[in-house]
Structures
1.
Amino acid sequence: MRHYEIVRIRENGKVELPRDYAYELGIVEGAYFLLEIDTDLNEVHMERIALPGKKLVEVELIVEDKPGVLAKISGLFGKHGANILFSEAEELEGIELAGIVAVIDVSGMSGTLEELRAELEGLDVVREVTLRPLE
């Protein structure tokens, strides 16, 4: 259900949401949100990625743009016990490559991030790998 609420911005860009809506959306201390900020339209979209208690890693990949690549990558995450909470892929125009950004929960993962990185780099369709733990 969509609600509309006018709020006043506090110092340093802080926004205070009405408590009832914040609770419904899971806006609690330690939760993770993705902010999509469009400065041309003066808009911000906020999407909850994870509730508190997760250990998140942002994954950036440059891969070959062909069928089955996402299946290989998500299968590897699953093999390691990493849960995909968010992902987005985009074709890199004219060079037959694609960029993938994902946020994974590694709190139940077997093995280390370095082992995961090595296996991702070992996939024949992966060209670049960046893993960035989120605080």
2.
Amino acid sequence: MTQNNLYKGFEVELFTGSLNSHIGVSAEIEKKFPDFVKEPDNRNVEYITTPEKDYNFLYEKLINPRKKLRRWLNKKELTIIPSSTLCFKHDIQFQRSDIQNVYHQFIQDSYGISIATSSVHINIGIDDLDKLFAAIRLIRSEAALYLSISASSPFLNNKITENHSQRWMQFPKTPQKVPFFVNHNSYIDWIEKNIANKNMQNIRHFWSSIRPNGPQRPLILDRLELRICDFVHDINLLLGITAMLELRILNLFENMNTLDPLTTSIFSIDELSEICDKNEINAAKDSLNSELIHWRDGKKVICREWIQNLLSDLSPTAEKFNMQHLLKPIYVVLEEGNQSMKWINQYKKGFSIEQIMKFSIDDMIKNEEDSV
């Protein structure tokens, strides 16, 4: 039923370096590869995929740029580092990728190195504005679940942190308070107000777990952008997270009266905003083991159980769209733990952060070779 699926696209950020240090070559990468762009800190680079409905095409769109980049990096004796934070011992000074860029200067002055993280942004095409904002409300209410599955940043500066997603703990969410948008007009008004009062420098300077996206923000919107996920090096898992997200949105469209938090939560929209922020912080700390507050009724629930319940709820929709197989990697994560949990266990067994990263880099390479 591919014709009834939604369009999906990705923005994938990567760290480059050696097996024990972060080395920025983003300016060279941008010149060499047209599908890669610089991030403000030189140690970061990003590639963007064009929208596709079919998951087989998505796999190719995600793996091929990485394979091309790796071949080029190999010649320089460099690699892709799968952590979502600067995990090796590093220079804590910001490393500008573009000295002339005024917006990058603002980011450096305002946030410094806290912005130097890597993640994957998942875009889902929705061109009906009422459906788009309902989807944004529901997925924001459950964003902590997606972070917990993807968590891959327990290390920072060659030390273990107390967080499964150190990236989301340190990332400067901006503006700090984001309301639940009741419709498109409320979003436009809020954006214009925050740019006018300098809470935001420009339309791009809206860094939250989720946001509307489109060709001419805030006026012309055509997709939901989930920004909370850590970098996921296993493409099959990333597609599993994407399938769970798409199925939840399709599920919402079939049940608008019972799944939109605006009409079915016991909480006000201001309370919902606070609950979601707390859930995201708890998920960043303990991921699958975190205790969260359910948006519908305020009951406390362990994140792993919430995901299991959600997958059960999505089962009929997954069957209808023939997408059950795509969700298998998520069940594996629920059983075996996410990337951060595995790394923390390896660290507790006495492996160094360099050794742990080497294991994961080898896994990445194997995945890329298996995809040939």
3.
Amino acid sequence: MIKESLFAAEERETKLNKLGDVLQILEEHVDFAALAAAIDAAAPRPSRERGGRPPFPTEIMVRTLLLQQLYNLSDEQLEFQLLDRLSFQRFAGLRHSSQIPDRTTFWTFRERLMAAGASETIFEAANRELDRVCSENITH
């Protein structure tokens, strides 16, 4: 018989941490809040004058686009994986959210970045941070 637990989600997260979730390691070394601020400066969030659903926070969108690039996912697959994978939900900051960005949201965010010429900013900044961490680990 399979053991059931009210704390199954927390138990799985603890096990993921012990196994060394690569995304958690990435999160420790990249300042995603600073990246999101740089993106908002280069490509301001759309005005809310016309109404509609409020956009997801830029930091969440930055994290999801990074997941998309790291795992070579289409917008449709990114949406599916965010609904399905615990590690993706944790990394994106959506673990306890009832809303997950959909494929159109990813496309709209990418268009916003491309229109402002900021689409490479995310990946250049993340790569700089990772290069810095790797060089620090090699020298120690």
